[in-house]
């Protein structure tokens, strides 16, 4: 009897759910989208090993560049993370749909009193100031943003005038003009072009001779 009543309750709840979804399709679609998005965020959340792999990859990318052309912000951020990793002061915390990597004061194996006393441990209210990166949808967002233009050293251009420090992308007309000039540069020269060049050279020689005679 208990099993029959339990199955009856579940059957009635499922029936009401289907009827409610049929009567309110917009609300149901919103709920399904939110639940699907939360499920996707939870399953694509990166782990601690992915952060270490991304950090080593970014460090190798900077190591292939000369110190003169590295971006100072990118290099400083990555070097700080590598230093904390070598000191075993990086901590990983999962917050459900996302995860964070933050900085700790001591190595977990440190036997100092300050590191072992719970009253002197880091309070949770200081966590936002210690966060170093945020993992969401398979990406580490702060690390990726710091690595933007990592091969451009902006300190090389700080002595230039202001109008030369910033560059704007070319417009469609300028791009089309450059492409046309590039295509024309590969075309073979015709005889008419050669004759015109010979005529221009002869005129220039005549002008130079006349100027010498006048002198």
From TrEMBL:
Biased composition, class Basic and acidic residues, residue ranges: 200-215
Region: Disordered, residue numbers: 193-215
PANTHER family linked: MITOCHONDRIAL IMPORT INNER MEMBRANE TRANSLOCASE SUBUNIT TIM29
Protein name per UniProt: Mitochondrial import inner membrane translocase subunit Tim29
Species the sequence originates in: Goodea atripinnis
């Amino acid at each position: 009897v208990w099993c029959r009543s339990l199955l009856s309750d579940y059957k009635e709840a499922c029936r009401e759910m289907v009827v409610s979804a049929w009567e309110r399709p917009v609300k149901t679609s919103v709920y399904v989208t939110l639940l699907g998005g939360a499920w996707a965020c939870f399953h694509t959340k990166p782990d601690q090993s992915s952060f270490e792999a991304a950090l080593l990859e970014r460090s190798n990318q900077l190591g292939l560049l000369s110190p003169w052309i590295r971006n100072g912000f990118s290099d400083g951020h990555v070097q700080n993370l590598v230093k904390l990793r070598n000191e075993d002061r990086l901590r990983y915390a999962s917050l459900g749909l996302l995860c964070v990597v933050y900085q700790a004061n001591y190595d977990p194996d440190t036997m100092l009193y300050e590191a072992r006393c719970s009253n002197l441990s880091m309070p949770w209210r200081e966590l936002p100031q210690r966060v170093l990166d945020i993992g969401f949808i398979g990406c580490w967002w702060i690390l990726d943003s710091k690595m933007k233009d990592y091969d451009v050293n902006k300190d090389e251009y700080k002595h230039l005038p202001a109008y030369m420090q910033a560059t704007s992308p070319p417009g469609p007309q300028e791009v089309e003009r450059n492409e046309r000039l590039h295509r024309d540069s590969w075309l073979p020269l015709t005889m008419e072009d050669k004759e015109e060049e010979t005529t221009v050279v002869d005129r220039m020689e005549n002008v130079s001779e006349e100027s010498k005679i006048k002198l």
